[in-house]
Specification:
By secondary structure, the chain is α+β, with helices and mostly antiparallel strands. It has one domain (about 5-110): Winged helix-like DNA-binding domain superfamily/Winged helix DNA-binding domain (Arc Repressor Mutant, subunit A). Helix content is about 65%, strand content about 10%. The chain contains 5 helices and 3 strands; from the N terminus they run ααβααββα. It has helices at about 5-15, 20-25, 35-40, 45-55, 75-110; strands at about 30-35, 60-65, 70-75. Strand 2 (about 60-65) and strand 3 form a beta hairpin. Helix 1 crosses helix 5 (about 75-110). The longest helix is centred in the C-terminal third of the chain and has 36 residues, at about 75-110. The chain is elongated.
Length: about 110
């Protein structure tokens, strides 16, 4: 994912904090207001809002204000970016372990007397 390294950095930094991961987990069930999202956390609303702003700036969520209520919803693109990068890494490591397995098997066959 060399073409979007800064975007990917923000995506994973957003996941680095347990509050932000919990917010994303809750939003997996559907959109929610800031009040609903903040309720389980023992922190001041301005502190919680920093997490919301960070998730929004890194593309994990979008917010929409209707009247006095700000609602948050998940954004698919950040999940796709993380999934693509993880898939690439998985493929690299699977290829390496496959090569190692072939090497071990070939070496064992050569060492085994017939």
């Amino acid at each position: 994912m060399a073409k979007h390294p800064l975007q990917l950095d923000g995506v994973f930094q957003a996941l680095a904090h347990p509050t932000r991961r919990a917010v994303l987990g809750r939003l997996g069930a559907g959109p929610a207001s800031i009040g609903e999202l903040a309720a389980p956390f023992d922190m001041a609303l301005p502190s919680f809002m920093k997490h919301i702003r960070y998730l929004e700036s890194t593309g994990w969520i979008r917010t929409q204000k209707t009247g006095r209520v700000r609602t948050c919803a998940l954004e698919r693109e950040s999940f796709d970016a993380a999934e693509t990068w993880l898939g690439e890494q998985r493929q690299i490591w699977e290829d390496r372990t496959d090569r190692l397995e072939r090497f071990v098997t070939t070496t064992k066959e050569k060492e085994t007397p017939k």
